[in-house]
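tool_call: predict_structure(chain=1)
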Amino acid sequence: MIQNNNTLMSDKIQSTLVNTIPLWKNQMVLALGLEHSRQAASAQREVADMTQRTAEKNADALKMATVDIARESERGVVDIETLQHTNQSLISTLDERPSDSGGGTAETSGGRAGAFPSGGRAQTEAAGYSRIKTRYFSVFVIYYRRKQRP
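tool_result:
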């Protein structure tokens, strides 16, 4: 009976070795495979996140560049402030220009006596400067209105 029990125990140990060790090896291979899959999934997630961040940064940079380019393309060659200053300067130059007060004599009219109407050279030139101021101001207003349109 003891011998029979020993034989049974020996068979059981033999069965355990034959069945359990390959099962254990199989479980270890599965566990290692799962760990490698988890690491690959983690790496893929990080790559996808980095791609997302890069795409968002590129979109933001593209938006800013587009806005800057649009702003600069809408900007005139000459700023409104410069045109206003130039306009004011030209008007003040025309207003401050010394006029001839001697009338339309031959000497003041360039040697052509009677070339100017009754007001003389000074009035004729003043009228010409007034027309120039009016035309220049009209061009300025048209440019300013076009600049103000969206």
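agent: The chain is about 80% helix and 0% strand. Proceeding to next step.
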